[in-house]
Design brief:
The structure holds two protein chains of two kinds. Chain A is mainly alpha-helical. Chain A is built from eight helices and no strands. In chain B, helix 2 (14-46) crosses helix 5, helix 2 runs antiparallel to helix 8 (173-184) and helix 5 packs across helix 7. Classes of the chains: A mainly alpha, B mainly alpha. Chain B: Residues 21-209 form the ABC transmembrane type-1 domain.
């Protein structure tokens, strides 16, 4: 308890905010790569692959991110793997994001009209060609708005990395609060910074959704 | 690396694990009931003719949906304390979770309201139903029926998110796991067991909502399909 909020505190919070963005990017890229594999596995022609990926998604979606983070941090340390808080948070978020993005993208791939699959098959394209040249280009268009929307969830969820000691925005707020003890003011600032990161993405996602809706109705009337 | 798992060391704490699971369910129950009411009110408010009410509801929904739950819980916890209100961690947790899930419920319910065909409301007016009757039978109940699966997912997510309340010392399931791991040094086992308990709780909740849906929507039960 001492002093007032000064420029040093704000710089520290700013650094935390940058780490929040960094961790979000790590989670988005890692989760995107694994999630894409999950999405493809969920519609695999092999039943065992479909089942295994479905079980993965169910397990992750039935567990709180906080518990996954603790498992990654304390759990791996307890069985002899010493990981830094950045590694633990990055890996846990990757596994978590992958399950959700995988499900979102599976839905998008499956919402490409069935006739497109059949036409591609009728043109004697192989399964890979069908995926790469016909289905995915259309699925990516459908997937963009919900993916941008999910990025808001990712940014918000990185706040949980604070509990394993990773100094992102939330944790830097807690540290500043420990020296100033003005919790209400500091957490209000933190909330505003999170809002400033998330709200533009929310708006962008809504805009994309509206634009897509228009594109679709044009397609239907054509 | 020596991998020696000792699950019994954690499992022998089953009374506190069960207590934590019960408190998690209790938190989820209160926040679901209060959040559903609160969120529905906010959804109604957003379509209000008064731009003041509509604007206030929009600010509420957007500010909650674009900030992390952890920050919201800390703000409520410390905010109420700085106003001189000394509340238990449980009360604060229920309040914060209610405010949080209310905003998501409001968005889901708004989608439900928008999906009600205008013609149905006009037909009800033509049949001389009162405003209240129209709101209840023609708008609210069919809207809930339409968005029921989305609401179910949201409330299950809320139960999982209540794990964050361990950070303000509400003794729910994750807090119990933290306590056990600091006591026994069996972190991996403790969190695995708690993860399994959470998965079980989310299955129980989904089954509960499915059963509740059968009771609430008899038409759906008879036809076997949503509206």
């Amino acid at each position: 308890m001492g002093g007032h909020l000064n420029i040093n505190h704000l710089t520290f919070l700013g650094q935390g905010a940058l780490w929040t963005i960094g961790l979000s990017v790590i989670a988005l890229i890692g989760g995107g790569i694994v999630g894409f594999a999950i999405a493809l596995a969920r519609i695999s022609p092999l039943k065992s692959v479909r089942l295994a990926s479905a079980v993965y998604v169910q397990l992750i979606q039935g567990t709180p991110l906080l518990v996954i983070l603790f498992l990654g941090y304390f759990g791996l340390a307890a069985i002899g793997l010493k990981v830094s808080s950045l590694t633990a948070a990055g890996a846990s978020l990757t596994l978590y994001v992958a399950a959700y993005l995988g499900e979102i993208w599976r839905g998008c791939i499956q919402s490409v009209p069935k006739s497109q699959w059949e036409a591609a098959e009728g043109l004697a394209l192989s399964r890979t060609q069908r995926m790469m040249k016909v289905i995915l280009p259309q699925a990516i268009r459908i997937a963009t708005p919900p993916t941008v929307g999910f990025m808001v969830q990712i940014i918000k969820n990185t706040s949980l990395a604070s509990v394993v000691g990773f100094v992102e925005l939330m944790r830097s707020g807690q540290i500043v609060n420990n020296s100033l003890f003005e919790p209400f003011a500091i957490y209000a600032i933190i909330a505003v910074v999170y809002f400033a990161m998330c709200y533009p993405l929310s708006l962008f996602s809504q805009k994309l959704e509206r634009r897509m809706g228009r594109g679709r109705s044009n397609l239907a009337s054509a | 690396m020596s991998l020696q798992l000792d699950f019994p060391a954690v499992l022998e704490r089953w009374p506190s694990l069960l207590g934590g699971a019960a408190l998690t369910l209790e938190l989820a129950f209160f926040a679901t009931v209060l959040g559903a009411l609160f969120g529905t009110l906010a959804a109604v408010g957003r379509s209000s003719q008064s731009s003041l009410i509509a604007g206030a509801c929009k600010v509420y929904v957007e500010s909650i949906r674009n900030t992390p739950l952890l920050v919201q819980i800390f703000l409520v916890y410390f905010g109420l304390a700085s106003l001189g209100l000394k509340l238990s961690a449980f009360t604060v947790a229920v309040a914060a979770l209610t405010i949080n899930v209310g905003a998501y419920t409001a968005e889901i319910m708004r989608a439900g309201f928008e999906a009600i065909p205008r013609g149905q409301i006009e037909a009800a007016e033509g049949l001389a139903l009162s405003r209240l009757q129209i709101y209840w039978h023609i708008i609210l109940l069919p809207a809930i029926e339409k968005v029921y699966p989305a609401l179910t997912s949201q409330f299950v997510l809320l139960m999982l998110a209540s794990s964050v309340c361990s950070q303000i010392s509400a003794e729910e399931l994750t807090a119990v796991a933290n306590y056990i791991q600091s006591d026994t040094y069996r972190a991996f086992e403790a969190y695995i067991i708690v993860a399994v308990l959470y998965i079980a709780l989310s299955l129980v909740m989904r089954a509960g909502f499915w059963g509740l849906g059968l009771v609430l929507f008899p038409r759906r039960r008879r036809l076997g399909t949503p509206l």
